[in-house]
């Protein structure tokens, strides 16, 4: 088993990576949540039929009382209405402050269940069991939990760290191609922002089969990079903003498509290419970087150019959490492997983006 520690003092936790871990969930949770009698498990309509049975058996064998709550698969479940239903369902189950919430699924389930855990009874313990590539490399680590509002992405949320992250790479075997590719967008992001060698490693593995051949190492590298930045800047006021490379524009594309046309991973893919091209125009990013990133993303059939209006760009720039008054920090690349924040007026960024339409 590979283990990483997110060392946040009283909120420290481990990320454990091993094939077959789903069947051992009970014993791992017993250690992480020693006081818990009840576990409220949130999953979705695709993941539940695939993995609930194994997880339930393991949790029950470890002596937990469990309740499973299933939401419809997809981004539309990451909303205030489903959150409110979760709260009521937790109370029906008799959840108390010493009990815990478990997220079994992708980033949607993790963000939704995590925000419910952060807010029910003013906060209960939370465990992530991520089952998509995106959730294993990114969303299950770091404690950003949220729901979307009609105004935009992740606008109501909290920082609520899990007590434990358990990832079983075998669950990736049942992902469809598009969902695997969504995760690759965030994997490529880590190479772009922090690690040129990892980026080259990915360029040498331009297919799902090749990535899966080294999956434990890929998961470990991504989680290690994220863990370090979260320890340094848990509340996203400085270095953590680099993890948002491609996301200002990505969130614009998600919003433009009503959260149905483009997945988060697809939108981030196109957003990273656009951000690299923006850096090239500003003289920050070496020429050809956008094309290099587009070539790698294209190997996984990710979109590298998504149609968008000036109004969509303006809305996303206005709502971005990297905003400070009339300014925004844009994440640019000085090179593949080295990201930097650049503060500029929001109006200037919007005008620069409009020139690309
Ligand atoms: N909190 C964070 O730091 C963070 C980071 C990145 C992304 N996110 C959020 O994560 C969400 C995207 O996550 P996602 O890409 O995992 O999407 P998702 O949770 O919607 O999962 C994608 C699809 O895969 C299915 N699925 C999940 N596991 C499966 C498995 N093992 N086998 C077969 N099908 C499976 C799901 O049912 C769903 O239909 C977005 O809302 C995004 O904003 C959050
Ligand atoms: O963990 C972070 O910090 C990230 O920015 C990771 C992103 O991949 C993720 O999509 C996150 O949810 C974006 O957060 P937001 O603050 O831009 O809503
Ligand atoms: Zn993301």
UniProtKB/TrEMBL annotation:
<feature type="binding site">
    <location>
        <position position="144"/>
    </location>
    <ligand>
        <name>NAD(+)</name>
    </ligand>
</feature>
<dbReference type="InterPro" id="IPR030960">
    <property type="entry name" value="DHQS/DOIS_N"/>
</dbReference>
<feature type="binding site">
    <location>
        <begin position="171"/>
        <end position="174"/>
    </location>
    <ligand>
        <name>NAD(+)</name>
    </ligand>
</feature>
<dbReference type="GO" id="GO:0009423">
    <property type="term" value="P:chorismate biosynthetic process"/>
</dbReference>
<feature type="binding site">
    <location>
        <begin position="131"/>
        <end position="132"/>
    </location>
    <ligand>
        <name>NAD(+)</name>
    </ligand>
</feature>
<keyword id="KW-0520">NAD</keyword>
<dbReference type="Pfam" id="PF24621">
    <property type="entry name" value="DHQS_C"/>
</dbReference>
<dbReference type="GO" id="GO:0009073">
    <property type="term" value="P:aromatic amino acid family biosynthetic process"/>
</dbReference>
<keyword id="KW-0862">Zinc</keyword>
<dbReference type="InterPro" id="IPR056179">
    <property type="entry name" value="DHQS_C"/>
</dbReference>
<dbReference type="InterPro" id="IPR016037">
    <property type="entry name" value="DHQ_synth_AroB"/>
</dbReference>
<dbReference type="GO" id="GO:0005737">
    <property type="term" value="C:cytoplasm"/>
</dbReference>
<keyword id="KW-0456">Lyase</keyword>
<keyword id="KW-0479">Metal-binding</keyword>
<dbReference type="GO" id="GO:0000166">
    <property type="term" value="F:nucleotide binding"/>
</dbReference>
<feature type="binding site">
    <location>
        <position position="264"/>
    </location>
    <ligand>
        <name>Zn(2+)</name>
    </ligand>
</feature>
<dbReference type="GO" id="GO:0046872">
    <property type="term" value="F:metal ion binding"/>
</dbReference>
<keyword id="KW-0057">Aromatic amino acid biosynthesis</keyword>
<comment type="pathway">
    <text>Metabolic intermediate biosynthesis; chorismate biosynthesis; chorismate from D-erythrose 4-phosphate and phosphoenolpyruvate: step 2/7.</text>
</comment>
<keyword id="KW-0963">Cytoplasm</keyword>
<feature type="binding site">
    <location>
        <begin position="107"/>
        <end position="111"/>
    </location>
    <ligand>
        <name>NAD(+)</name>
    </ligand>
</feature>
<feature type="binding site">
    <location>
        <position position="247"/>
    </location>
    <ligand>
        <name>Zn(2+)</name>
    </ligand>
</feature>
<dbReference type="GO" id="GO:0003856">
    <property type="term" value="F:3-dehydroquinate synthase activity"/>
</dbReference>
<dbReference type="Pfam" id="PF01761">
    <property type="entry name" value="DHQ_synthase"/>
</dbReference>
<keyword id="KW-0547">Nucleotide-binding</keyword>
<feature type="domain" description="3-dehydroquinate synthase C-terminal">
    <location>
        <begin position="183"/>
        <end position="322"/>
    </location>
</feature>
<keyword id="KW-0028">Amino-acid biosynthesis</keyword>
<keyword id="KW-0170">Cobalt</keyword>
<dbReference type="InterPro" id="IPR030963">
    <property type="entry name" value="DHQ_synth_fam"/>
</dbReference>
<dbReference type="GO" id="GO:0008652">
    <property type="term" value="P:amino acid biosynthetic process"/>
</dbReference>
<dbReference type="InterPro" id="IPR050071">
    <property type="entry name" value="Dehydroquinate_synthase"/>
</dbReference>
<feature type="binding site">
    <location>
        <position position="153"/>
    </location>
    <ligand>
        <name>NAD(+)</name>
    </ligand>
</feature>
<comment type="function">
    <text>Catalyzes the conversion of 3-deoxy-D-arabino-heptulosonate 7-phosphate (DAHP) to dehydroquinate (DHQ).</text>
</comment>
<comment type="similarity">
    <text>Belongs to the sugar phosphate cyclases superfamily. Dehydroquinate synthase family.</text>
</comment>
<feature type="binding site">
    <location>
        <position position="186"/>
    </location>
    <ligand>
        <name>Zn(2+)</name>
    </ligand>
</feature>
<feature type="domain" description="3-dehydroquinate synthase N-terminal">
    <location>
        <begin position="70"/>
        <end position="181"/>
    </location>
</feature>
<protein>
    <recommendedName>
        <fullName>3-dehydroquinate synthase</fullName>
        <ecNumber>4.2.3.4</ecNumber>
    </recommendedName>
</protein>
